[in-house]
């Protein structure tokens, strides 16, 4: 579960340097405005923009336009080994809207699921930039991160994800001299699944030992993976949502090989693949999140996440990740766990993770990889913001929105995660039936606790989902509220 799918697609109409840079199309990052906030208000960040991950880009010879990689296969006469492949191949600029279905307008980013241009593109992954050649790095401890999301057009099987990975700000350009493309071209991705579908890692192609996926025409896996701490703030569709920290025992983006990539066993790697998740449905509140429910996914809403430390300082130890929602001008407290053997937890703490793993009979991989303290140390070093939309070639996203494992008793705690059918989410189905799906992320704000959101203070008697008064409170008038007041 909690796997990141391979989301690879190719355009023959665009060009970029493998780890060199191509010149077929100028890379122009779509602008995306966002804000930083304090108790005295919010200000627009400079140079807000996004860049497309390198894996999606056209990879062709530096000398011409022969593909270095087509579908899920490397050209073995160009890519005889990882180093020469990096020298011979170039990543090119992206046609964001035409090829990848990625568009921005003001503070809003829309990502389409399937885009049919000259080629068919499935999903995308983009990063927020600080400038043209660096990813924006966020230090989230004792801070709050807020965004609006519209998941109304994201059905079962899809995942609109907003998360942080501990990537190098320059995409690995300085560390690896053979990487000439860098963050401008979306290099250096890593996450807690130690993905092996990444085409270039540490300035070398992952072409040696590459195995084409049996069920994904755009993906394969190489001998290396790219691991790092991952903080999933939001993985969701219109039916289910989860937030999940995933610690690793390595600091920063780290190339793995063999069992460090969890090859023989899911839990043998340097990262925690499961994480400690909070999914309201899985925690037993089945009427909180969904179409027409307390958080009504038929309309946009605001997602607030607070990263609290033991001494209320940015250098303290991470102790709690809190979640709030705002919709129709009202603050909605997170749902409370209703699981036998667990307190009515409504946030992620060390005690929540311990009790949840025990109640669900899950492994303690999260704790074994350092738990909240370790992901907190990663947050202290700085992480890159990732926004994506994907489908799941491994397990059809059932870990997020259905009964999983599918053969387990759904009345057993932790098995039911959402109302999607166990037969839903197959990529061959959703890529056809739900090709027009999309997600919109907007109004990103980052700042001091209590400074990034407010409400109109009006409570509508006809609020969606019946507006349960026990889960909905009127927000304070000012933006200076401390989290303790909620
Ligand atoms: C692989 O690259 C070689 C050398 O550039 C080229 O001649 C050949 O056509 C390519 N093969 C494919 C399948 O594109
Ligand atoms: C941190 O702030 C909260 C809310 O204001 C307060 O309840 C708590 O006592 C503070 N903790 C410390 C260690 O100062
Ligand atoms: C918070 O804790 C960290 C780590 O122990 C310490 O370095 C820092 O000085 C503390 N900050 C405050 C304001 O107490
Ligand atoms: C697709 O293939 C991968 C192996 O690359 C396998 O792990 C996965 O279970 C397959 N997915 C489905 C839905 O058959
Ligand atoms: C997707 O949208 C396009 C354009 O609006 C439309 O022509 C097409 O029929 C839609 N496809 C599906 C599967 O709904």
TrEMBL record:
Taxonomy, superkingdom: Eukaryota
Annotated segments matching region Disordered: 407-427, 455-486
Stored Gene3D superfamilies: Glycoside hydrolase, family 7, domain (2.70.100.10)
GO terms classed as biological process: cellulose catabolic process
Keywords: Carbohydrate metabolism, Cellulose degradation, Glycosidase, Hydrolase, Polysaccharide degradation, Signal
Catalytic activity: Hydrolysis of (1->4)-beta-D-glucosidic linkages in cellulose and cellotetraose, releasing cellobiose from the non-reducing ends of the chains
EC number(s) given by UniProt: 3.2.1.-
GO molecular function annotation: cellulose 1,4-beta-cellobiosidase activity
Cited InterPro entries: ConA-like_dom_sf, Glyco_hydro_7, Glyco_hydro_7_sf
Residues making up the signal peptide according to the UniProt record: 1-18
PANTHER family associated with the record: 1,4-BETA-D-GLUCAN CELLOBIOHYDROLASE B, GLYCOSIDE HYDROLASE FAMILY 7 PROTEIN
Family: Belongs to the glycosyl hydrolase 7 (cellulase C) family.
Protein name as it appears in the record: Glucanase
Organism: Sphaerobolus stellatus (strain SS14)
């Amino acid at each position: 579960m909690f796997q990141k799918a391979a989301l690879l697609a190719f355009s023959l109409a665009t060009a970029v340097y493998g780890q060199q840079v191509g010149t077929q199309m100028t890379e122009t990052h779509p602008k995306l405005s966002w804000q930083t906030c304090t108790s005295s208000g919010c200000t627009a960040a400079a140079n807000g923009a996004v860049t497309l991950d390198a894996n999606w880009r056209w990879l062709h010879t530096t000398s011409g336009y022969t593909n270095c990689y087509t579908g899920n296969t490397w050209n073995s006469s160009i890519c005889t080994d990882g180093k020469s492949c990096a020298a011979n191949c170039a990543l090119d600029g992206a046609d964001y809207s035409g090829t990848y279905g990625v568009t921005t307008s003001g503070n809003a980013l829309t990502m389409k699921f399937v885009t049919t241009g000259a080629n068919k593109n499935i999903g995308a992954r983009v990063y927020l930039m600080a400038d043209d050649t660096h990813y924006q790095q966020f230090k989230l401890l004792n801070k709050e991160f807020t965004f609006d999301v519209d998941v109304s057009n994201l059905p079962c099987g899809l995942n609109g994800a907003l998360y942080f990975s501990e990537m190098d700000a320059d995409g690995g350009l300085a560390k690896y001299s053979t990487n000439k493309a860098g963050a401008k071209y979306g290099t250096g991705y890593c996450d807690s699944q130690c993905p092996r579908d990444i085409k270039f890692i540490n300035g070398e192609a992952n072409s040696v030992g590459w195995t084409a996926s049996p069920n994904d025409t755009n993906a394969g896996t190489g001998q290396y993976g790219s691991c790092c701490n991952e903080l999933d703030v939001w993985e969701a569709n219109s039916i289910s949502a989860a937030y999940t920290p995933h610690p690793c025992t390595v600091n920063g983006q780290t190339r793995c090989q063999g069992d460090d990539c969890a090859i023989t066993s899911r839990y043998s790697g340097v990262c925690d693949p499961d994480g400690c998740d909070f999914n309201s449905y899985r925690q037993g509140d089945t009427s909180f999140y969904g179409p027409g429910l307390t958080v009504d996914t038929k309309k946009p809403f605001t997602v607030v996440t607070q990263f609290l430390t033991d001494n209320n300082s940015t250098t303290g130890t991470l102790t709690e990740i809190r979640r709030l929602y705002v919709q129709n001008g009202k603050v909605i407290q997170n749902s409370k766990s209703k699981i036998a053997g667990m307190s009515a937890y409504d946030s992620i703490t060390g005690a929540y993770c311990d009790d949840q793993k025990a109640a669900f009979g899950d492994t303690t991989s999260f704790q074994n990889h350092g738990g909240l303290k370790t992901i907190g140390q990663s947050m202290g070093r700085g992480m890159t913001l990732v926004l994506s939309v994907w489908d799941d070639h491994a397990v059809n996203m059932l870990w997020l929105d259905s009964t999983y494992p599918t053969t387990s008793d759904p009345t057993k705690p932790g098995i039911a995660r959402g109302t999607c059918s166990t037969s839903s989410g197959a990529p061959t189905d959703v890529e056809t039936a739900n090709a027009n799906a999309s997600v919109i992320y907007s109004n990103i704000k980052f700042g001091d606790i209590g400074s990034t959101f407010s409400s109109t203070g009006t409570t509508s008697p006809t609020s969606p989902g019946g507006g349960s008064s026990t889960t909905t409170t009127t927000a304070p008038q000012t933006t200076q509220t401390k989290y303790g007041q909620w």
